[in-house]
Recover the amino acids of this structure.
């Protein structure tokens, strides 16, 4: 037994020394990476009504152009460049990361990459965003016919108007949707938080696996359908003709704006809802958790 312990200790020491050597070499070869940040501007020629962006930048922001030119302005690593091109009436933006694996692990830099896409028009037909990490920001300067936003690990801040359908999906991250009007809203999060503030739509759907779903002043003209596996659902002054909320493990709390006919189910937990029998159907279901919803 003592021999085995000595052997394990010996292996651990060797691994520690090897790791230290690798770290030292990486630091020396990469020179803390601070010297490898560069400024690049990508001019965009041609007309387009659709936008597709496949990005990994730490920050990616959309802004209206002030000089009448479409362009992508980046603060980026030398070996993490962008490509922009216009084809088939669409602007396509790609983020190419050619760094080695050790560059990503032994990265010593207090500055994060940032890209700003300047656009001359405020209306576009379709926008598709696919990102892995980082933050994507689109403010209320823009209107889209359809918007499809997907990020793996990162954050979405979206405040543009959408005349038709809005689809937002985050795997591990945070989506903040604020001051948005749309027709059909579909939001989905695997592990993360969905935060929706001031939305008017025809139909609203939200799904979450692990994490909170917070709805504040969300008004749907027809239905509001919210489902969560693990996490709380907060309804802060929301309304719809019919409301359906189902949570496996978590609680449902909040305020609805107009009287509803409440139908509730809870396997374990406390239920506190009005006894009203007028208005649209409001179905609230939890397996493990509490239900506490009032009418304003």
């Amino acid at each position: 037994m003592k021999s085995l312990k000595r052997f394990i200790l010996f292996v651990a020491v060797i691994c520690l020394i090897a790791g230290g050597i690798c770290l030292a070499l990486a630091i020396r070869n990469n020179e803390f990476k601070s010297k490898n940040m560069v400024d690049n501007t990508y001019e965009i020629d041609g007309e387009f009504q659709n936008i597709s962006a496949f990005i990994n930048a730490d920050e990616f922001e959309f802004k209206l152009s002030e000089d009448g030119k479409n362009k992508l302005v980046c603060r980026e690593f030398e070996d993490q460049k962008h490509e922009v091109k216009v084809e088939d009436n669409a602007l396509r933006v790609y983020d190419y990361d050619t760094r080695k694996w050790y560059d990503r692990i032994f990265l010593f830099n207090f500055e994060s990459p940032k890209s700003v896409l300047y656009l001359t028009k405020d209306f576009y037909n379709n926008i598709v965003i696919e990102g892995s990490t980082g933050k994507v920001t689109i403010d209320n300067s823009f209107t889209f016919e359809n918007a499809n936003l997907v990020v793996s690990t990162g954050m979405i801040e979206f405040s543009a108007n959408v005349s038709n359908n809005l689809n937002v999906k985050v795997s591990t991250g945070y989506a903040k949707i604020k001051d948005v009007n749309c027709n059909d809203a579909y939001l989905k999060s695997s592990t993360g938080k969905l935060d929706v503030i001031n939305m008017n739509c025809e139909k609203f759907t939200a799904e979450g696996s692990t994490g909170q779903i917070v709805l504040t002043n969300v008004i749907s003209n027809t239905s509001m359908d919210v489902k969560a596996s693990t996490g709380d659902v907060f309804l802060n002054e929301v309304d719809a003709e019919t409301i359906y909320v189902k949570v496996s493990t978590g609680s449902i709390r909040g305020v609805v704006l107009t009287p509803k006919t409440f139908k509730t189910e809870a396997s374990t937990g406390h239920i506190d809802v009005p006894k009203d029998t007028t208005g649209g159907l409001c179905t609230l279901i939890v397996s493990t958790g509490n239900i506490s919803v009032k009418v304003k």
